[in-house]
Amino acid sequence: MAITLPDLPYPDDALSPHISGKTLEFHYGKHHNAYVVNANKLVEGTELANEALETIIKKTAGETSKQAVFNNVAQVWNHSFYWKCMKPGGGGPPTGAIAQKIEADFGGFEKFSDAFKNAGATQFGSGWAWLVLKDDKLHVMKTPNADTPVARGLKPLLTVDVWEHAYYLDYQNRRPDYLNVFVEKLINWDCVNSQLG
Ligand code: MN
Fold first, then answer.
1. Is residue 1 predicted with pLDDT exceeding 80?
2. Domain spanning 21-84 has what CATH number?
3. Is there a contact between 1 and 40 (Cβ–Cβ < 8 Å)?
4. If you measure from the C-alpha of residue 147 to the centroid of ligand 1, how many angstroms do you get, rounded to a whole number?
5. Ligand 1 centroid to 56 CA: how many Å?
């Protein structure tokens, strides 16, 4: 298989009680896995079969005839990144280089936190909120459905999945509560710092 389901960086109940083992069992084991299976079926035997995920995303973005390939491959990339953006005992104010950059570019953690949570809360329907690096400056953005900053050549530093399957078992319709917990209890700032490089 050209495209693989990466191991979760922690056991599937490690983010409990903030995100339950049941949510990860379905979100990782069923949803993410289905994107991997479908992506492989769609690229098999095509010129994209042996390309890296990022290359497939860039080559199929905005191509109507390649929409299904883009959707599945981008969702594989987005989810593989999302798992790395969380850790047990994470969240709260950042440390390291990203702390200084957030201070410089947003005017402090609270302002970043508000902007990031607002992006997630106002994404109508399914999608993602992101912290990205563009021209060496931090930006918060949101994308619908499978869309990803990778398609635009931006460097993702952090993401949160706001599809209902990410939070409905634990938070039902309370997406803002899930976003608060993500920022306060789950963000893996070590991973964000390593992306910042
Ligand atoms: Mn998801």
1. no
2. 1.10.287.990
3. yes
4. 12
5. 19
